[in-house]
Design brief:
Blueprint lengths: L2 E2 L1 E3 L2 E3 L3 E7 L2 E11 L2 H20 L2 H17 L1 H12 L3 H22 L5 E4 L5 E9 L2 E5 L7 H12 L3 E5 L6 H12 L7 E3 L4 H10 L5 E5 L2 H13 L3 E5 L4 E5 L5 H13 L9 E7 H17 L18 H16 L3 E4 L13 E6 L4 H4 L6 E7 L2 H9 L3 E2 L1 E5 L3 H10 L4 E4 L15 E2 L2 E2 L8 H4 L1 E9 L2
Parallel strand pairs: 1-5, 8-9, 8-11, 9-10, 11-12, 13-14, 13-19, 14-17, 16-17, 19-20
Antiparallel strand pairs: 2-3, 4-5, 6-7, 7-23, 12-22, 15-16, 18-21
Helix pairs in contact: 1-7, 2-4, 2-6, 3-4, 4-5, 9-10
Length: 476
């Protein structure tokens, strides 16, 4: 089996070691071998990016737009193939995986348009004969650190705006899912991106991630991953005076009021809590249900949960694929045990019977918001059901969390929907929709322990990847 190499300065390079990329549905199956880089490889990638960035920034907007547009078109044409690879390395169902690949293509094409819309301002000064001009310029070399749960969408939504703004990129993808990032690198080369503008260095976060964050020639770091790692990166970037953008965890609430359409509520909660095996930072992990509808909601949701088909993601009948790794699965199962110890009635949650890393989705009934299982991010197909008396209590419980990424409410009341949208302490609010599932042309991000820095996706993404310059001109 050939080794998939790193991309540094336009050349494909072997690493100091090799890692096996395995299928979580069939752990005995090796999908591919991937090079693991060293600190020296990372330094070479940064040097290549630093050398290539000025010419890329000086290229015309049309030239940059054309490259991104070609990359997006190639991804879209290959979406079924990329989706199948994604399903095999991460465990999403095939339909979800093809959808993610398609989204990555759309992201590149969206930012191809944003290249041509990067605007400034020209203003009159308060001083006679002086004009003011405000422009945006690229930051320089950007380091991107991406997680395993969206192995092509997140690399795309960081890389595309960075390139659109005229930056050079060094990408370190997650160890568990390097294949899709590697394909994206191949596609950028095929699309005609100049050598050194995009570099792919694979390896562990402790080695490659640390070296990328602390390198003095890297001017900005965008990271998606766990809150503890994000806090450490924030401190390192502050010490190095770097721009930093963090997307971290969530313990997202979905409020279900007595007046909710029961079918809509169950559908939204089933999707938000269990689809993508619950491995989404926007997953609905706290279901906050008003007492009048609680019993009927739980009965209907449990019937739907028990009927979910857990299995091989390549099987079209499968609705929930495997957990990404044995380590992640064991962590999930430990939370199932914890919820039971804390006094919850646990429905489901057991390890699957197949050889892969499967877990049956779990509901934690009789939960309270004070329980650890209701406060700590599990990142698996587990959801706590918390009973409340009225809207005000539901809102209070929803906001009582260290996180603030996404929140939702199921109601037919315009009054309550409006109040929840205004008072929810989250960066994204959904009404009668799952907390997970967002568009690529609008901002993505949260508050508190979920996010730090400018928003990702949509036109606002360009704010992080640019620096504002104000020029004064004496016209005489």
């Amino acid at each position: 089996m050939d080794v998939n190499k790193m991309l540094i300065g336009g050349a494909w390079r072997q690493g100091q070691s090799v890692t096996e990329n395995r299928n979580p549905a069939r752990p005995d199956e090796v999908i591919g071998l991937y090079a693991q880089g060293s600190v020296e490889d990372l330094a070479d990638a940064v040097a290549a990016a630093k050398a290539a960035q000025p010419a890329w920034a000086a290229a015309t907007p049309q030239a940059r737009a054309d490259v991104l547009d070609r990359a997006g078109a190639i991804i879209l044409a290959r979406a079924p193939e990329i989706g199948r690879l994604l399903a095999r390395e991460e465990g999403k169902t095939l339909a979800e995986a093809v959808g993610e690949a398609t989204r990555a293509g759309h992201i590149f094409r969206f930012f191809a348009g944003e290249v041509l819309r990067l605007a400034g301002e020209k203003l009159d000064s308060v001083r006679p004969g002086v004009e003011c001009e405000v422009t945006r310029e690229p930051v320089g070399v950007t380091g991107l650190i991406t997680p395993w749960n969206f192995p092509i969408a997140i690399p795309a939504w960081k890389t595309a705006p960075a390139l659109a703004a005229g930056n050079a990129v060094v990408l370190k993808p997650a160890d568990l899912t390097p294949a899709c990032a590697h394909v994206m690198a191949e596609i950028l080369v095929e699309a005609g991106l100049p050598e050194g503008v995009f570099n792919l260095v694979m390896g562990s976060g402790r080695v490659i991630g640390e070296a990328l964050v602390t390198h003095p020639d890297v001017h900005a770091i965008s990271f998606t991953g766990s809150e503890p790692v994000g806090r450490g990166i924030a401190a390192q970037c502050a010490a190095g005076m770097k721009k930093v953008q963090l997307e971290m965890g969530g313990k997202n609430p979905m409020v279900v009021l007595d007046d909710a359409d029961l079918d809509v509520a169950v559908g939204a909660c089933l999707n938000g809590a269990f689809f993508s095996t619950g491995q989404r930072c926007t997953a609905s992990s706290r279901l906050i249900v008003q007492d009048g509808i609680h019993d009927a909601f739980v009965e209907k949701l449990e019937t739907a949960r028990a009927a979910l088909i857990v299995g091989d993601p390549l099987d079209e009948a499968t609705q929930v694929g495997p957990v990404v790794s044995e380590r992640q699965l064991q962590g999930n199962l430990s939370y199932v045990d914890l919820a039971r110890e804390e006094g919850c009635e646990v429905l489901g949650g057991q390890r699957g019977n197949a050889a892969g890393w499967f877990q049956n989705p779990a509901l934690f009934l009789n939960a309270t918001n004070a329980m650890r299982s209701s406060r700590e991010e599990i990142f698996g197909p587990c959801a706590s059901v918390i009973k409340v008396g009225d809207f005000d209590e539901a809102l209070s419980v929803a906001n009582d969390t260290a996180f603030g990424l996404s929140s939702g409410i199921c109601t037919t009341s315009l009054k309550h929907a409006t109040a929840f949208r205004r008072r929810s302490a989250a960066g994204m609010v959904m009404v009668n929709l799952p907390t997970a599932g967002v568009d690529y042309h609008v901002p993505f991000g949260g508050r508190k322990g979920s996010s730090l820095g400018q928003r990702e996706q949509g036109p606002m993404a360009m704010e992080f990847y640019t620096s504002v310059k104000t020029s004064y001109i004496f016209a005489g």
